[in-house]
Amino acid sequence: MASTMHSFANGAELAESLAARVADSLASAVSARGSASIAVSGGSTPKAFFQTLSRLPIAWEKVTITLVDERFVPADNPRSNHLLVAENLLQNEAATAHFMPLYQEAKTAADAAKIATEKVKDIGAPFDVVILGMGTDGHTASFFPGGNNLVQALDPATPRGVITMEAEGAGEPRLTFTFSSLQDARLLVLHIEGEGKKTVLEKAEEPGEEAEMPIRAMLRRAASPVEIYWAP
Ligand SMILES: O=C1O[C@H](COP(=O)(O)O)[C@@H](O)[C@H](O)[C@H]1O
């Protein structure tokens, strides 16, 4: 499916525009179906977007927020994506939203993935909104180059749900929604910032193996068009 590039002068303008679009999608979902679902990314990029979105007045009590991926660490760990969302998105107007964590207290990441899959089964089929990020290695969600479960994660036949991922560039073991869970979101966004990531995106748009740059799976095979939001 084709992608569309939305470029902005700076991160603040991007955050305003993306937050308005996402709030509109969530509000439409609530009007149409009585509830809305959104899966967001972690990392360093989405902070300003989260803060802006958190201030927009929609029926947040009818919105479920989850993560596209998470480290296998509890929510008080500074590297937790849950912590980032709690501090920046589950605030202000959005404080009444429901949050569905991927991390679960379990002996292993594999056990946590099973529990998370069961808990998220009633949301996101499809998600109303998915916000992807991208690392400079071309990973998105926790689809890491060289990841031990990458083939399974990207296989469109792998069912919706959460699986584990371990990879050299990933640090802790990860929990990630599968490709099939994310690719058909009613609004599918790739949010990236910086000249470096634009160069990575341009490379990802060239021919090459998906396994080298897993973002290619989304750019090439997602059922929904990828709306790319970029600022320098
Ligand atoms: O590991 C992760 O990194 C990517 C990109 O993060 P950024 O710091 O370069 O913005 C992120 O999309 C993903 O959710 C996160 O777990």
Automatic annotation (TrEMBL):
It comes from the Bacteria. Its EC number is 3.1.1.31. CDD domains: 6PGL (cd01400). One of its GO terms (molecular function) is 6-phosphogluconolactonase activity. Keywords: Hydrolase. Pfam families: Glucosamine_iso. It catalyses: 6-phospho-D-glucono-1,5-lactone + H2O = 6-phospho-D-gluconate + H(+). One of its GO terms (biological process) is pentose-phosphate shunt. Residues 11-220 form the Glucosamine/galactosamine-6-phosphate isomerase domain. The keyword Hydrolase applies. Pathway: Carbohydrate degradation; pentose phosphate pathway; D-ribulose 5-phosphate from D-glucose 6-phosphate (oxidative stage): step 2/3. NCBIfam families: pgl (TIGR01198). Hydrolysis of 6-phosphogluconolactone to 6-phosphogluconate. Belongs to the glucosamine/galactosamine-6-phosphate isomerase family. 6-phosphogluconolactonase subfamily. This is 6-phosphogluconolactonase. It comes from Ferirhizobium litorale. The gene is pgl.
